[in-house]
Design brief:
The structure holds 2 protein chains of 2 kinds. By secondary structure, chain A is an alpha+beta fold. Chain A has helices at about 1-10, 15-25, 30-50, 65-80, 100-120, 145-150; strands at about 55, 85-90, 125-130, 150-155. Chain A has a 4-stranded mixed sheet with strand order 1-4-2-3. In chain A, β2 (about 85-90), α5 and β3 form a beta-alpha-beta unit. Chain A is globular and about 35 Å long. Chain B is mainly β. Helices cover about 10% and strands about 45% of the residues of chain B. In chain B, strands 1, 2, 3, 4, 5, 6 and 7 form a 7-stranded mixed sheet that branches. In chain B, strands 10-9-8-31 form a 4-stranded antiparallel sheet, with no helix packed on it. Chain B has a 4-stranded antiparallel sheet with strand order 11-12-13-14, with no helix packed on it. In chain B, a hairpin with a 5-residue loop joins β11 and β12. Chain B is elongated. Chain B starts with a helix and ends in a 5-residue tail after the last strand. In chain B, about 45% of the residues are buried. Classes of the chains: A alpha+beta, B mainly beta. At the A-B interface, α5 and β3 of A face β15, β16, β23 and β27 of B.
């Protein structure tokens, strides 16, 4: 059902570029590889149109002004693509204990999710999870790297419970 | 071999001994102590070259244990005077006194196919008295455990404290770098030997903890993007999820009776503590609200739980009744406090503190007094206690470096790296192996 949604979108030409790549190999549209290609293309489109990441201050989960702008664009994108689902992953920098950061990451993901809900996106389409500090976006230990790693990443694709 | 046969395999017999009122003692509560000189000649081997080699290895493992404790200074065997043959009969104290050694350990290994009998004696050289005489039987494959048990007996006799050498560590091993990093649970002896992986590295894992009998490990694992608490049998590798609530579960800890696991549940932006009864599967919320409550730990008696929470604005330590009532703030220092761990003796709570841009491992008494820092680093995390409550192991990572395991005495002295293949984090110390 979810896959069908993706395939319909693919058929409308939204992700034409990805499908060209996928069909180069004459891939069966049901295969994992082509599913991945479709999801990746959707994510690329989402990232280019709205921005897929919201950043946070140290040990904070409130949505900053720049994050609010991003989430507004994300909400518009979700309204345009009325059936797509997403998982919002909360991430932290390394300057905290691993377990607390699991909780803080969830709080950040939930803050982004609630903002999207307040903008009219259906709760059934969004899922919030936490990756703690396990998956930094940027290696390194500068304040700049830390700031890049304190984020909520919205991943388009069938949401996981 | 499984745990049951292991328990049966160790026999312990007292050797004939003299009634001794030995004064040889190390007071380990008083900070830095001068290590006690101790002579540990190779144990004699009866039963061929294999027994002789085993006798040498036994002495080496015991010397390494005692040295690593920071309380003993094994004497260089090249200085020994008394010949091994006559030492088997009785120590000639006149030959040991010139070495300025205070203690002497002698032993004999008798090997038969598949099994070992090791007899050892500990002597007070100054008083010319025997302090211990014991004989241990066991499976040859478990010879290191026999050596560690001897080290425990010596440590215990001289310090008056329980030992901690016959123990294991479960931890998260890191292999690879960046996006290719693999995280696997591994179990090893406390000194890094007998290392083996117990998860395959398909998913990231966190926070393993031994059950009170050390035959099970509870831990958090990511299933795709969802973290959840699991249980794993260390011998069979058999596993099952136990934290499949709506929401994310992590930071699991066994109750002292092993009948339940408490853990954090993150849901709707709040993280609470939940208790799961392992037999019935029933869950009971221990905390509620909109804040973050995590990293719980039972008191040794099981009547209290210490945890960290930001309910007061910043992350601090709180103690509540184990049914969830009456939380009171414990920490009041500058900065943030996390990962409290109650000492098995009940007298200290170890924690991580983040202040002035540094990470510390510290301890305070359960009434909040006596706070002091034991170790610091760019990042330190996950303190865990040796079963005697005298040594703490933790993760330390230098800026730009790989996380590694270290141990330090509760006095703040004797910081040592614990050898692991690759990076290491989230250590948990087992109880003394039964």
């Amino acid at each position: 059902m979810r896959l069908n949604t993706l395939l319909m979108l693919a058929a409308t030409g939204l992700v034409a570029a990805a499908c060209e790549t996928a069909s180069d190999e004459k891939a069966n549209m049901g295969s994992d590889a082509s599913k991945d290609a479709v999801v990746n293309a959707l994510q690329d489109n989402f990232k280019a149109t709205a921005g897929d990441t919201v950043f946070f201050d140290f040990d904070k989960s409130n949505i900053r002004a720049d994050g609010m702008e991003t989430l507004k664009k994300q909400a518009e994108w979700f309204k345009k693509h009325g059936t797509l689902e997403a998982t919002i992953e909360g991430h932290c920098d390394v300057r905290g204990t691993s377990e607390y950061n699991m909780a803080l990451g969830e709080r950040r993901a939930e803050a982004a999710k609630r903002t999207l809900l307040s903008m009219g996106i259906e709760a059934s389409r969004l899922n919030a999870t936490s990756m703690g500090k396990e998956h930094p976006l940027v290696a390194g230990h500068s304040e700049e790297a830390h700031a890049q790693n304190r984020r909520a990443l919205t991943s388009i694709g069938p949401k996981r419970a | 071999m499984n745990l049951k046969t292991l328990i049966l395999a160790f026999g312990l017999t007292a050797l004939s001994t003299y009634p001794a009122m030995a004064e040889l003692k190390i007071e380990i509560t008083e900070g830095k102590v001068e290590p006690m000189p101790i002579a540990i000649p190779d144990f004699a081997g009866n039963g061929g070259p294999e027994a002789q080699a085993m006798g040498r290895q036994m002495a080496q493992v015991i010397a390494a244990d005692l040295e690593r404790s920071g309380l003993f200074r094994p004497i260089d065997p090249r200085a020994f005077i008394q010949d091994p043959a006559s030492l088997q009969q009785a120590p000639k104290f006149a030959d040991w006194k010139p070495l300025k050694t205070e203690a002497l350990v002698t032993g004999v290994v008798e090997s038969s196919p598949g099994s070992l009998k090791v007899s050892f004696r500990l002597f007070d050289v100054t008083a010319e008295e025997q302090m211990i005489g014991l004989s241990l039987n066991g499976d040859s494959a478990q010879w290191r455990r026999i050596a560690h048990k001897i080290s425990d007996a010596i440590y215990s006799r001289i310090t008056g404290e329980g030992g901690y050498f016959d123990t294991r560590i479960v931890y998260v091993n890191l292999a690879g770098h960046g996006k290719k990093t693999r995280k696997r649970l591994a179990i090893m002896d406390y000194d890094g030997e007998n290392h083996r992986y117990i998860t395959g590295g398909e998913n990231f894992v966190m926070s393993p903890r031994f059950s009170p009998a050390a035959h099970e490990v509870t831990f958090m694992e990511f299933e795709g993007k969802k973290p959840a608490v699991h249980m794993l049998q260390t011998q069979t590798g058999q596993r099952r999820p136990i934290g499949h609530f709506p929401g994310l579960t992590f930071a699991p800890r066994f109750s002292p009776d092993g009948k339940s696991v408490i853990m954090s549940l993150a849901k709707n932006g709040a993280t609470t503590l939940q208790k799961l009864d392992l037999l019935s599967g029933a869950t009971t919320p221990l905390t509620s609200g909109t804040m973050i409550d995590t990293s719980p730990c039972y008191s040794p008696e099981g009547d209290k739980i210490v945890f960290n929470s930001d309910r007061g604005g910043t992350q601090q330590l709180y103690i509540m009744d184990s049914n969830g009532g009456g939380a009171e703030r414990l920490s009041f220092g500058k900065g943030r406090y996390a990962t409290p761990v109650w000492s098995p003796r009940g007298d200290w709570i170890a924690f991580t503190r983040i202040a002035n841009g540094n990470f510390y491992v510290g301890v305070m008494h359960p009434d909040g007094t006596g706070e002091r820092m034991l170790a610091q680093g760019y990042i330190v995390d996950s303190p865990t206690w040796a079963p005697n409550g005298r040594v703490i192991m933790y993760m330390k990572q230098d800026r730009g470096g790989v996380p590694k395991l270290y141990s330090v005495d509760v006095t703040g002295y004797n910081e040592r790296e614990v050898p692991t293949p690759g990076g290491a984090e989230h250590p948990a110390w087992s109880p003394l192996i039964p």
